[in-house]
Amino acid sequence: MSVDIKTNTELFDVAKLFYIDDCPNVFLTVLDERNFCVDIDGVLTSYTYSDNFYNVIPLAHRVQRLSKIAVYDALCAYTGRSMPWGALTGVRPTKLFYECLRAGYGAQDAVLLMQKVYRVSYSRAEILDKIVSAQRDKVFYSDDYFNLYVHVPYCTTRCSYCSFVSMPIDKCKEQSKMYVKLLCDEIKQSIDFLASRGKKLLSVYIGGGTPTALGDNQLVDLLSSINVSGVEYTCEAGRPDTVTKEKCIIMKEHGVNRICVNPQTLNEYTLKKIGRSHSVKQFFDAYDCANSMGFDINCDLIAGLEDESLDDFVHSFNGIKALVPHNITVHSLSKKNGSAIRYTSGENEGTSSMLDYVLSHMDKYNPYYLYRQKRQSGNLENIGLSLPNKECINNITTMEETVSVVACGAGAISKLVDNNKIIRHANVRDVGLYITEYGDRLKAKHECFSNVFDKSV
Which of 27, 63, 390, 408 has its CA 20 to 30 A from that of 166? Predict the structure, then answer.
């Protein structure tokens, strides 16, 4: 029996690596766990995967994964194209690399298996090896710890590529006061709930939006509700125009030790085009302010912004490297649902060269975490670089899903690790509903937590 891949989400995701629209008719027939037939517009091709190296795929997942590989192989032959991440469509390629290591293979064999089994390019398979090496002693599985994520859905303006729950703060002054009040209550209750179950806080990450878009008093209230010390504590200050000496002092006094100051590009014309309300000079001023206060600093850049050339991106990347921030995160542009650019046509054909430049010019930096998204330019990746021993523990343990994430705020998603299973609980995205339905939603959240955490008490 043939299956139309458009009726199977995972198989259709493989086709979308090759086609944004106008995908041909593709049908898959599973003959047995090793043999498949793919029909593309009436052209039939058979595939047999009998080599022993395919045994690295766990038996429970073998048919599913080999089905994707068969569709990928057929589309490669049909289009004459291949993808840097091969047949992989998931967010976390490192998980498969770790799977190879757990199966008893060495790192170099795992690099080879990523290429042979999943069709990953050599450069990407090698990066996975470097990332796993950087994560050694920093990624661990623990039911005793949790990461706290806090979402602030306000910013100065909305960027064209943004899909997060975020609104201009100038239009939401009164709403933001009630939101912060309830958010502080949710944080306190969540921390108390988990502490009563013997759970310990591993790290804190306040994101958005732009948390530093809040007024000074609101920021004080928010940070006071967390009241922790001795843990990795990140606050996004992504918009340089929101970074002031006063806010840096507030963050420092409340235990924040890591902040993100994100230019996205160091080209003035691009900043205006993507809706950023700051200049390049404001970024450098904000960076200097944060650096003078002794924070660990991350800077984000986006590869593949509209009309940017490779030279434009190299200018930005080298300009950031010259500052020597502790972390640099490079995102390949993704046209996500909810963003203003979601339905724009075309993509920057230079994105792949931009990422290649990053991978070949890391200098003193090491890649330490990586993830992928749908509709990502060039089917590439987002990659985090770090100076030695400055890796962000929150990014590693959250991305590898080894520690539970307790999330507070509108649109925030808690991910509870339960015997290697991930149980998700999402807060309502709409800020108005978050406020009006706060009590009932918080009760449902704690009931979800109880179902997971109280089983072992």
Answer: 390
